[in-house]
Write a structure and sequence with these properties.
By secondary structure, the chain is an alpha+beta fold. The chain has a single domain, classed as Orthogonal Bundle (Inhibitor Of Apoptosis Protein (2mihbC-IAP-1), Chain A), CATH 1.10.1170. It contains seven helices and four strands; from the N terminus they run αααβββααααβ. Pfam families: BIR. This is Death-associated inhibitor of apoptosis 1-like.
Length: about 140
């Protein structure tokens, strides 16, 4: 293990957390509190509420639209094969919640994998980029 690289990465992460320490919704910092927001989550949804809550999301009350308690990103229109951590990191690779739980290497690896798939399919985002970020006025 390269301790110099580790300490540099650690310092970068600490700096990033410090600079982005303003949680959008700090009242949902707990997994259980996020999970409670899924009380009316559609049973026909393609993503499990437990996975969504684990990945930092709360349910907005509209369709299958969820919002990250940390960065505030809204994601919806989930497909069956969408992997929640991948979608979160793809749509906001700078979310500190994703960085803290999965690490910068996870985001970098997924980004490289996504770029490879996109390049191999002739830059067609229809096949790769299924989950969409949405713009909604969410009251609640």
């Amino acid at each position: 293990m390269n301790l110099l690289k580790f300490s540099t990465d650690c310092r970068s992460l600490v700096r990033l957390v410090h600079e982005n320490s303003n949680l959008e919704f700090p009242e949902y910092s707990s997994f259980l509190l996020r999970l409670k927001t899924f009380g009316s989550y559609p049973t026909r949804s393609r993503q499990a509420k437990y996975s969504l809550a684990e990945c930092g999301f709360t349910y907005t009350g509209a369709d299958d639209l969820v919002q990250c308690h940390y960065c505030g990103i809204l994601l919806g229109k989930w497909e069956e094969n969408d992997e929640v951590w991948h979608q979160h990191s793809m749509h906001n690779p700078e979310c500190v919640f994703v960085l803290l739980y999965k690490g910068a290497q996870f985001i970098e690896n997924f980004k490289n994998e996504f770029d490879d798939i996109r390049n191999n399919r002739g830059n067609s985002n229809d096949q790769v980029h299924r989950c969409k970020t949405e713009s909604y006025d969410v009251v609640g």
